[in-house]
Input
Amino acid sequence: MAAARHCALAFALFAATAGCADDSSSGKHQPMETSQQALHDARQMLLDGHNQDASKLLNHALLHDPNNANLHFLNAVAYHMEAEQGDLPKRDLAAVGYNAALRHDPTLAPAAYGLGILDIEMGNYADAVDKLAQCLLYNKNDEYSLRAFVVAAYYARRPDLAVGAIDQLIQMKGSTDELLRIKSLVEAALGRSADAADSAGKIRSADQRKFVESRIEDWRDFYLRNDVALPPDSTPAAPPDTVDEGGPKANSAGTPAPDAGGAIKLADAAPA
Output
């Protein structure tokens, strides 16, 4: 999970490059060049791991240019990265920064992405779906955003939303074992056992294919046992950190629960 967060934040950081090149959201209290320089310097500080120094620089720049969405965004990334390193209360400051960026520029997709990642990290999956959908509205073909959306939708008990995003990812990146694994599990959660089996049959890794086939059987048994169509709000939503890695489990309702040992997990929010 930490690796997924690291990759996600790295994406957000590099997305800020656009802000350095085009600072059109800057206010009139500070020359555009000064804000651009602050963004450039802070970005390099973050790349070097100097998160607190970057935040100090950005907060100073915001005193003179409070309407600059890119400054708010990169400051949020700095706080988010501090939270990633263990200072969890900084998540709240990161959320404030991302929201401030969106107030000044509602089209700033990386800020909506950052909020979505925060929600995933805190287990607020339904909120994450909303934030990532906003991100995809302006950045519909972004691999990171689509991956995060799939994870959020699956754990928000909405595999019906996840399936469209995973199909788009496969169109973009090809039928990799990783994406076929996710597609199979989403289809199984939707009750599409035949489609899930077909997707699983294309997985090249024998170990992954065997695991996915066992999960498909879990879902098929669930549907047969209940003899009803599973509504969207009854699909699995157990937080991955609380699931035993020993194999597929079931929640209190008998629904197969996500499994940290190989099912859909937070690490899937970023490319391997």
